[in-house]
Design brief:
Layout lengths: L5 H12 L36 H7 L12 E2 L3 E8 L9 E9 L7 H10 L6 E2 L8 E5 L7 E7 L2 E8 L10 H17 L3
Antiparallel strand pairs: 1-2, 2-3, 3-7, 4-5, 5-6, 6-7
C-alpha cells in the first residue's frame, strides 16, 4: 500500500467527519463621526457693538449724576461695562453704579444660557424679588459689610447689576427704604439700556 500525503489525509477526514468551518465576521469601523445637527442659537437681545455708553445711559435717566470715566471691556464672547454715576459736591446725591455683563452665543450654548449661568454664580445670601418686573429674574445681593443696596437682574443675554448708596441718608442696605430707591433707579437704568 502506498502512503498518502498527510495533508490529503487530514482534508479527507475533515470532509468525511462533517466538520465545517464557520466564517468569522469582521468588524467595520468608520473614521467619520456620526453627523448631528444642533441648531445654532438665535440672535442675542443685547449686541456688543451697539450697547449704549455711560453718557448715553445718563442722558436717558432724568436727574442721574454724571458718570465717571469708564471703558467697556470686550472679549470674543463677553462684554462688560461699569458706569458709576456720582458727584462729590453733595452727599445727598446718591452714588449709583451700573455693571452690565453681556454674553455672546457660542457654538453650542446661547448667550442667554451663559448669562443665566453667570447670574446663578453670584455669592450666597441673595434674595429673589418678585416685585421687580424686569427681565426674567431679579435678586437682592447680600450687602455684606458695604453700604449699598445691590439688585441684579437677568435679561436674556445680559446680567444687569445696580448698586445704590446714599451716604447722606445712611440707609441700611437691607431696609425697604434703600431697596425702594434702588428699585426705582434700576427700572430707569433698565429702560435706558434697551436696544
Amino acid at each position: 500500500m502506498r502512503a498518502r500525503p498527510i495533508g490529503v489525509t487530514i482534508a479527507a477526514m475533515t470532509l468525511a467527519g462533517g466538520c465545517t468551518v464557520t466564517p468569522v465576521p469582521t468588524a467595520t469601523y468608520s473614521s467619520a463621526p456620526t453627523p448631528t445637527t444642533i441648531p445654532a442659537p438665535g440672535p442675542v437681545k443685547y449686541a456688543f457693538a451697539t450697547f449704549k455708553t455711560c453718557p448715553e445711559i445718563q442722558r436717558k435717566v432724568p436727574g442721574l449724576p454724571p458718570p465717571l470715566a469708564s471703558e467697556p471691556l470686550r472679549g470674543d464672547d463677553r462684554f462688560s461695562l461699569t458706569c458709576t454715576f456720582t458727584t462729590s459736591e453733595n452727599d445727598d446725591i446718591p452714588m449709583i453704579t451700573l455693571d452690565v455683563e453681556l454674553y455672546e452665543n457660542q457654538r453650542d450654548l446661547s448667550g442667554a444660557e451663559r448669562a443665566k449661568s453667570g447670574f446663578n454664580a453670584t455669592p450666597v445670601g441673595e434674595k429673589t424679588d418678585p416685585s421687580v418686573h424686569l427681565g426674567s429674574e431679579a435678586r437682592w445681593m447680600d450687602p455684606g459689610v458695604g453700604p449699598s443696596c445691590r439688585l441684579n437682574v437677568l435679561d436674556e443675554n445680559a446680567v444687569v447689576m445696580t448698586r445704590y448708596n446714599n451716604a447722606g441718608k445712611k440707609l441700611d442696605p437691607r431696609s425697604e427704604e434703600c431697596r425702594g430707591l434702588a428699585r426705582d433707579v434700576t427700572r430707569q437704568l433698565y429702560d435706558a439700556i434697551q436696544p
